[in-house]
């Protein structure tokens, strides 16, 4: 990293412009007959994912050559661990939805500095929604401050896997099941809009799934945590996380966290020192 590092708002401007261009590229493949295949872990990938990933790498690293790189669709390079700032990207979050022609897929881009996301965008091109934030700058949606609209009088709306629903109900939590958007990042930022009151993900989500949403949620003043270890740390050797939860109403936190721990447990400490990430073996839509 050079002695002079770009300001966070400059990084955010770069992410925003690059996400829009990436969205245009991805949209050229959307709702068309395109090539797709399964990774080793049975998660899908398409030619659109690869084309967008190559565009992102070329554009972002040309603009910030001193930054590291971590992407779902690029083989991991351990040199990122020596970089103060790292791009963490998911070219198309919600590939299954993309291939089915559903509109809630996103382009997710973040800058992580010393393990903490400091700028991020979650862009849903088919919905014309750009969620963005940088550290100290607040969260925005389509250029306007992101304001959570409370659902007055309604029970909390929470999407979750079936086993987690069973545990939350067993703990006496009164709520309504919410929509399980295929893009995890999109699901998380809906807690900031007020469309959801909490959003969770099973153990195994990875840096590229949540880094951009993490800074947006943080700047929106919402609770976001790995239920086993607190606020997630990024750009480690192992990019996987424990079960996570974004929560708007802190009264929900004890039961939601307890349910996730009951279902998924917490990773052993030895797992945190595992080898570097391999996108071909770890990637999946949480």
From TrEMBL:
One Gene Ontology molecular-function label: inositol monophosphate 1-phosphatase activity
Keyword Transmembrane helix in record: no
Single Gene Ontology BP annotation: signal transduction
InterPro entries assigned to the protein according to its UniProt record, in alphabetical order: Inositol_monoP_metal-BS, Inositol_monophosphatase-like
Residues binding Mg(2+) 1, per UniProt: 72, 92, 209
Cofactor(s) essential for the protein: Mg(2+)
Keywords, ordered alphabetically: Hydrolase, Magnesium, Metal-binding
Coiled-coil residue windows: none
Residues the record lists as binding Mg(2+) 2: 90, 93
Domain of life: Bacteria
Keyword flag Disulfide bond: no
Family classification: Belongs to the inositol monophosphatase superfamily.
Annotated protein name in UniProt: Myo-inositol-1(Or 4)-monophosphatase
Taxonomic path: Bacteria, Pseudomonadati, Pseudomonadota, Alphaproteobacteria, Hyphomicrobiales
């Amino acid at each position: 990293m050079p002695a002079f590092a770009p300001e966070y708002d400059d990084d955010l401007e770069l992410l925003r412009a690059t996400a829009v261009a990436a969205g245009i590229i991805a949209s050229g493949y959307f709702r068309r007959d395109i090539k797709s295949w399964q990774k080793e872990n049975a998660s899908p990938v398409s030619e659109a994912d690869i084309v967008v990933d190559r565009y992102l790498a070329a554009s972002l690293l040309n603009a910030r050559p001193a930054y590291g790189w971590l992407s779902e669709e690029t083989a991991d390079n351990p040199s990122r661990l020596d970089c103060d700032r790292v791009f963490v990207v998911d070219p198309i979050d919600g590939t299954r939805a993309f291939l089915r022609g559903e509109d809630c897929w996103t382009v997710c881009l973040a800058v992580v500095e010393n393990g903490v996301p400091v700028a991020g965008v979650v862009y849903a091109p088919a919905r014309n929604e750009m969620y963005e934030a940088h550290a100290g700058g607040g969260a925005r949606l389509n250029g306007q401050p992101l304001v959570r609209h409370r659902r007055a009088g309604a029970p909390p709306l929470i999407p979750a896997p079936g086993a987690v629903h069973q545990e939350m109900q067993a703990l006496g939590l009164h709520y309504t099941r919410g929509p399980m958007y295929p893009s995890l990042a999109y699901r998380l930022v809906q807690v900031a809009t007020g469309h959801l009151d909490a959003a969770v993900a099973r153990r195994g989500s990875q840096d590229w799934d949540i880094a951009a949403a993490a800074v947006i949620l943080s700047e929106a003043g919402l609770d976001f945590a790995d239920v086993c270890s607190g606020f997630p740390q990024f750009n480690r050797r192992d990019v996987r996380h424990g079960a996570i939860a974004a929560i708007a109403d802190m009264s929900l936190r004890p039961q939601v966290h307890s349910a996730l721990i009951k279902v998924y447990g917490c990773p052993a400490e030895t797992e945190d020192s595992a080898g570097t990430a391999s996108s071909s073996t770890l990637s999946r839509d949480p």
